């Protein structure tokens, strides 16, 4: 399961129906078409806006790999960098994930918005750390190997819609799916109380009984993360800060993101090495 990541159980019966061509079945991945992204870096989706220089800080708790409860802090920054992936120009997010104030993951994530207003996750490079040392990077990109872009947020989410792939990269066990669970909720977190909140229930093919619940507020984006079922992380996060970075601060973030990309080309030559540099 990726940062914040996962959704609804994909039943074997539905998968069998997919193979038989049933129009109402659930496919493993979305039908990605790069020709439908005319203005892909203008991400103004109501529930998932990405404006360069915006920074979101989340705090809460999670279980570590040993099952111990630890404090968690996640810092998500929208950079002013872009990267071409699978024929589509994407916006780059640089995310830092801390357990008990120790960096456990630094991720470059790539998003694009299609002509219908749907935001797609085009790939990611998550570098995992332990005791300050780099461990691994389960990188994937749409169009590289067998990986295919997935939906991060629909243009018009509605209750009752079918679940959707959030990205398909089985080589690194990224098979997350999402489905609208609730609409028009009122949710309070440290930054404010928000109305019109959409709740997305996420799971994966690998962990169909583990559910992450993400709460999205209009004009803000993700404000809360919860869980249900057999999610071993039992992660709970709330939005505690929303910052607009200064030009100087944004330049510092850009430099750090480019530094991570340089490392990505060294440790992921077969995947990251197939992509063009960020600009």
Provide the number of structural domains: 1
The number of helical runs is 2
Structural class: mainly beta
**DSSP strand (E) fraction?**
over 45%
Oligomer: single chain
How does this structure look, described?
The chain is mainly β and 279 residues long. The protein has one domain. The chain has 2 helices and 15 strands. The protein has helices at residues 12-19, 247-267; strands at residues 54-63, 69-85, 88-99, 102-113, 119-130, 133-136, 140-141, 148-153, 164-165, 167-168, 176-189, 192-204, 210-217, 221-229, 236-244. The protein has a 15-stranded antiparallel sheet that branches. Strand 14 and strand 15 form a beta hairpin. It starts with 11 loop residues before the first helix and ends in a 12-residue tail after the last helix. The model is unreliable at 1-24 (pLDDT under 50).
């Amino acid at each position: 399961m990726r940062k914040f990541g996962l959704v609804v159980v994909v039943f074997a019966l539905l998968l069998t129906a997919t193979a038989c061509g049933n129009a109402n079945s659930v496919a493993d991945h979305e039908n990605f078409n790069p020709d439908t992204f005319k203005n892909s870096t203008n991400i103004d989706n109501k529930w998932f806006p990405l404006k360069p220089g915006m920074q979101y800080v989340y705090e809460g708790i999670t279980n570590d790999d040993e099952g111990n409860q630890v404090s968690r802090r996640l810092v998500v920054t929208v950079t002013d960098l872009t990267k071409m992936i699978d024929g589509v120009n994407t916006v780059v997010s640089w995310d830092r994930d801390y357990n008990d104030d120790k960096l456990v993951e630094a991720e470059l994530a790539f998003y694009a918005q299609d002509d219908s207003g749907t935001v797609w996750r085009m790939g990611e490079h998550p570098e995992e750390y332990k005791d300050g040392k780099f461990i691994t990077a389960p990188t994937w990109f749409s169009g590289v190997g067998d990986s295919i872009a997935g939906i991060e947020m629909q243009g018009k989410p509605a209750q009752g819609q079918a679940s959707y792939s959030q990205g398909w990269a089985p080589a690194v066990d990224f098979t997350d799916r999402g489905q609208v669970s609730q609409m028009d909720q009122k949710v309070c977190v440290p930054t404010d109380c928000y109305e019109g909140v959409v709740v997305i229930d996420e799971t994966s093919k690998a962990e169909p009984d583990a559910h992450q619940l993400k709460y999205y507020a209009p004009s803000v984006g993700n404000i809360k993360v919860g869980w249900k079922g057999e999610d071993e992380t039992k992660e709970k996060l709330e939005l505690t800060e929303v910052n607009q970075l200064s030009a100087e601060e944004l330049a510092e973030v850009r430099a750090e993101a480019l530094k991570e990309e340089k490392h990505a080309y060294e440790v992921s030559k077969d995947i990251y090495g197939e992509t063009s540099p960020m600009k």
